[in-house]
Amino acid sequence: MYKILKKEELNPTVTMMDIYAPFVAKKAEPGQFIILRVDENGERIPLTIAGYDREKGSVKIIFQIVGATTKKLNMKNEGEYIEDFAGPLGVATHTDGLKKVCIVGGGVGCAIALPIAQKLKENGCEVTSIIGFRTKDLLILEDEFNSASEKLYVMTDDGSYGREGNVCVPLNEMFDAGEKFDMVITIGPLIMMKFVVEATKKTGIPCTVSMNPIMIDGTGMCGGCRLTLIEDGKRVTKFACVDGPDFNGYEVDFDEAMARGGMYREFERHAYEETCNLFAKEGK
């Protein structure tokens, strides 16, 4: 059993938890993920590591309440326990040797981008961060990104905070001004990453994408995270949880990934509603 040391609501749909898991914290690196079960009858879900404290033995997770399991997880409080917390899994994000990097995060994907930005700064890298949200009410981690970045651009679709527009607006402005980076790293909704890749491609700057949004069971056995890459003109199948979650953005077939990502949406909606009804009956 793994104790919840801290719980914080970052916005109405996103929650942060610190979990006491010393063996995971000892080995965790940015870009990796864990697999958890809320209780002994729960399903296994992968969540990317949003931070860690090796001295305290804690691992930070940030999750959006979108389905049955995240609803159950959000019902847990500080001092309570979750059943399983296995990891770290996946390949850590490459950060060594990079001197100047642009991090582009969207929505809850910013929780995954933050430890990468922090690790890069720790390594002496100059970090420029762009974070985007639909509206001010969904903003998370601004202060943390500000501390980890030389420059920070905050974007909202409706202009309610920061600048109005999507994350590609300042990215294209920097490219048009001749700004150069060793790498662009982007994490967020698939459609956002697709357009960040397209914007970056014209510069020839390497672009890494995190394909954690398509992971389901985190082991590769379910096949839900199958990903098609175009390598040397050939279509190659990879698995986001086993081979990634980071990939060369120029090689990813985003259209296929987005089509597959919508397959379980209706099922997840029904599972979420059933869970909400169950908690309502129990008076929670």
UniProtKB/TrEMBL annotation:
Free-text cofactor note? Binds 1 FAD per subunit. Binds 1 [2Fe-2S] cluster per subunit.
Give residue ranges for domain FAD-binding FR-type.
1-95
Q: Which Pfam families match?
A: DHODB_Fe-S_bind (PF10418)
Which amino acids does the record list as binding FAD?
I62, F63, Q64
**Coiled-coil intervals in this record?**
none
What Gene Ontology terms for biological process does this UniProt record contain? pyrimidine nucleotide biosynthetic process
Which cofactors does it use?
Answer: FAD; [2Fe-2S] cluster
Q: Which UniProt keywords apply?
A: 2Fe-2S, FAD, Flavoprotein, Iron, Iron-sulfur, Metal-binding
> Which GO molecular function terms does the record list?
2 iron, 2 sulfur cluster binding; flavin adenine dinucleotide binding; metal ion binding; oxidoreductase activity
Question: Is Metal-binding a UniProt keyword of this protein?
Answer: yes
Sites binding [2Fe-2S] cluster sit at C222, C225, C241
Transmembrane annotation, as ranges: none
Read off the InterPro entries from this record.
Cyt_c3_hydrogenase_gsu, Dihydroorotate_DH_Fe-S-bd, FAD-bd_FR_type, FNR_nucleotide-bd, PyrK_electron_transfer, Riboflavin_synthase-like_b-brl
**Which NCBIfam families does its entry note?**
PRK06222.1
Supply the PANTHER family for this chain.
DIHYDROOROTATE DEHYDROGENASE B (NAD(+)), ELECTRON TRANSFER SUBUNIT, DIHYDROOROTATE DEHYDROGENASE B (NAD(+)), ELECTRON TRANSFER SUBUNIT-RELATED
This protein is called: Sulfide/dihydroorotate dehydrogenase-like FAD/NAD-binding protein
Source species: Qingrenia yutianensis
